[in-house]
Amino acid sequence: MSAEAADPAAPPRRRSRPRIDLRRLGRVALLGPVSRDRLPAAIGHVAEAHRAHHPDADLTILHRAYVLAESSHRGQMRKSGEPYITHPLAVTLILAALGAETTTLTASLLHDTVEDTEVTLDQVREEFGEEVCYLVDGVTKLEKVDYGAAAEPETFRKMLVATGNDVRVMSIKLADRLHNMRTLGVMRPEKQARIAKVTRDVLIPLAERLGVQALKTELEDLVFAILHPEAYEETRRLSTAASGADDALPAIADSVRHTLREADISAEVLIRPRHFVSLHRVRRKRGELRSTDFGRLLVLVGEDADCYAVLGELHTCFTPVVSEFKDFIAAPKFNLYQSLHTAVVGPDGAVAEVLIRTHRMHKVAEAGVVALGNPYAHDAAAQQTEPSDGERADPTRPGWLSRLLDWQQSATDPDTFWTTLRADLAQDREITVFRTDGGTLGLPAGASCVDAAYAQYGDRAHTCIGARVNGRLATLGTQLSDGDTVQLLLAQDTASGPSPDWLDHARTPAARIAITGWLTDHPDHEPGAEPGDRGRGSAGAAPVPAPPRSRSGARAANVLVDGPEAPVRLAGCCTPVPPDDVVGFPVRGGAVTVHRRECAAVARMRDTGRAPVAARWRDDEDGWSDTAACRVTLVAESFGRPRLLADLTEAIATADAAIVSANVEPPSEQRVRHTYTLQLPDAAGLPALMRAMREVAGVYDVSRAQHPAAAG
Description:
single chain; 26 helices; disordered C terminus
């Protein structure tokens, strides 16, 4: 965009802009040395690149857009000293070379007019239509005079929201940043570094996710040169030295061509040099570079079936490196990328990596969403798919973008949005998990059941008490793999909420923002005090009614504490019951949380200087009721065997205890650890319950739990 626009003689920009007669400007430009039926020479190379992909394209609108851009930017200069019009021309040429359609090129010619000249969006809409106006608006920066330090993150938020409706917005932004990075040498070093870091953290990941590899690889090299100049120079030196040395790749390429001709497979075999960042990564991985590491073989064929035919011939006639084989045709990447990857050993023992794809796949691999053309062509099929509310359905809108648009609505603070956006984009792989109702969830690699819960249920996931993964009980912290089937279990108690421990397992911004927001709104929430002890990844729960609450909203307990009257509750980390020796500690909101004296949280709070409060169980004179319900967490250690879980839950039910939550850890050396949070009718039944559980075949110990939870 237009940080480099400079017109020292121009007066400060006015908040109220006079209307410009675009038709008059167009006539003035057209009456120059170029006739009305020909494009100006300055845009001729753009037209040539465009016609290479779209032979029948109508160039009239490009002519008009250039006339407006040149007229409105006239007199403005870039910091490099070039006329400013060279920038929108260069951006448009980048997109034309990638195969962008005419509407995108029109908008790219005009992308800085509204931001840096007196042209208004209404005028763009009137002259070029709604689509061009939308694209220009999408890439127009918000002014610092209005947004201050938040201008940059809020500009990216605006741009991403616009991309959600039309991915061509981000295509223009990426091409714009690429040309600015190419000419960044005129900037001060500190500004170069700042722009390069934003490019690295935000725009390169977006280019990767949109599949625009041609832009992504060049952006990576430009950032590499600015942020790591010494490593860049060393890599460039190695690449230059290798270009003059004997290279085994041409010999292997000739062998591959011969093999495919013998098999009567029509294919184009090319040597594809690695860009500097890719070469640097290979060097860090292997230490010493092989002669074949400086490039890869690219085999282009006509049909999908031909890809597998080529693969079969290569694996038959050469020795394959099995660990290097990947099939991204049967299972495309989430950024539209399709190709077969393999590596073969040449006649002289050199190993060459080989990419096999169709010409169409290659176009998409290079240009990503740009190669898909206009997803909003006004044909009958498109009209039928448009939602009734008028919002256009974007067939190129991937799952990661939908998730990003969802969570950004909750990140109202610009700093939170900016930090979270960078963290989200750093997760560069995606998995798909299946729901038991037949639906699917797209999640970043490394996502847990916590992330799946918020992806499926939104704020309802606050009440999640566990999960089943591939039919087996699992903790909420269980990391999901591609292809897993997950069933989330929700409690009936809608007043319950997440534990801070959930943040340790949340990978998606939507989950982290939702959990953080709930904890901020409920500062008195005690981890484990609500049903389910959910902070420890409970699973397989049978919800029970919530105990009665005091007028203050805190749970009442059969405990007396010294000091002024205050809400009293039992700690979920150690679940004390009579006749445990107990002690209390004040927490936020004025409540007192009661722990067992041997609880690990007690020692931690004493170490931090928090003063304890004397506490004791109510007796008959205090109004103690033998039938007062209590909650306790028990740990059962057992040897693994069939029906063990069923027998244990039956023993618990026979003792008239309700299971609030259950967590079964994976077997280790034939031993299984079960953790149950139980609701008992009264504490007197606890010893009998523990005896009943110990009597289950295979169970060798039952004890009270001691969780490492914070106490408030």
